[in-house]
Amino acid sequence: MKPLAGLLSGIIFGFGLALSGMSDRDKVLGFLDIFGDWQPALLLVMAAAVTVTLLGFAVVRRQRKPLFAPSFYLPTARAVDAKLLGGAALFGMGWGVYGFCPGPAFTALFYGDTDTYYFVLAMITGMWIASRLETRTSHG
Questions:
Q1: pLDDT digit string, tens, across residues 57-72
Q2: What ranges do the domains of the chain cover?
Q3: With 86 labelled, which of 36, 67, 77, 129 sits at a CA distance of 20 to 30 A?
């Protein structure tokens, strides 16, 4: 049941990204261009996402345990360190340069744009390198 719930959640998420325009890189880049030809349409999408997240966390905190796991795995880290800031900076640069973050990038693969395939390949490679560096630094 857990894999089916994950699959269904992923399909709904991907559909929402496509429907909202978050998988249209030109629209995202227009939204990020606040000092140029700013296109604020995605502001409502982000406001809706934040609202749903806040409501979701309110519901989660009232539950004793999740439906498909023995316990909740909520973030506990509170430190703002170099690793967090560096990761946020890299994420922001990737988003600003190409117009995608991971979810919309995978959704956009279905549009068949060759540049998106290269972006996703580079993103996966970067994630792999980061995990290798994390493993190396935590063990040695």
A1: 898 888 888 888 888 8
A2: 2-139
A3: 36
